TrEMBL record:
Gene Ontology molecular function: transaminase activity
Cofactor or coenzyme needed: pyridoxal 5'-phosphate
Signal peptide: none
Quaternary structure (record): Homodimer.
Keyword Transmembrane helix: no
Keyword Transferase: yes
SUPFAM superfamilies: PLP-dependent transferases
Protein's name according to its UniProt entry: Alanine aminotransferase 1
Record's keyword terms, sorted: Aminotransferase, Pyridoxal phosphate, Transferase
InterPro entries: ALAT1/2-like (IPR045088), PyrdxlP-dep_Trfase (IPR015424), PyrdxlP-dep_Trfase_small (IPR015422)
PANTHER family, per the entry: ALANINE AMINOTRANSFERASE (PTHR11751), ALANINE TRANSAMINASE (PTHR11751:SF469)
Amino acid sequence: MKKLDSTVLARRANQIKEELRQKLRKPYKQVIDLYWGDPHAAGVKPLSFVRQVLAACLYPDLVNSNTLPVDVRQRAQRLLGECAGGSETQHIKTMMVHNVKRVFEVLNSLPGFSCQPVEGGAFAFPRLHLPPKAIQKAKEMEMEPDLFYCMRLLEEAGVLVKPGMENGPKEGTHHIRFCIMTPEETMEEILSSMSSFHTQFMKDFS
């Protein structure tokens, strides 16, 4: 029988959001969406111009291309010349540095997680070392183990992340994938929720 794919997560997340709007009691007040890699959904205000400028500062070849608007390239060129970032650009850089550091520290402190440093990207892709009982339970529910983990994380902590099964992991390994472009306070909330959930999950299936 064909196993469920990760679209069930998105559908269930929408159902939970509706349940929350209807005041159904949950252990959380909202679903934090890190699945799609949409910074706006994760709480970052729309900053298209700033993000484009930041992209050009990080990849200077963009300054000499027609990929970005003229005003973006002009601002990036001036910033690169001054070797200093504008306030919003610097804020995003600071946020990313903080989140990269905290994701690495917190996840690697949890038994059953191993996370490589995030370098030059907006996603973390930590590996899950799941107990045999969790893998067996996932099989019984016709799910890949990382999808099973993500579903439980959504239901119990209100955090929506993507199972790594769709990103071509090595056979026999399990991962989750989530966007780290979210405000620092939101990332701290996410990491706290994930830590509490993960500790209980590992205990339940030990």
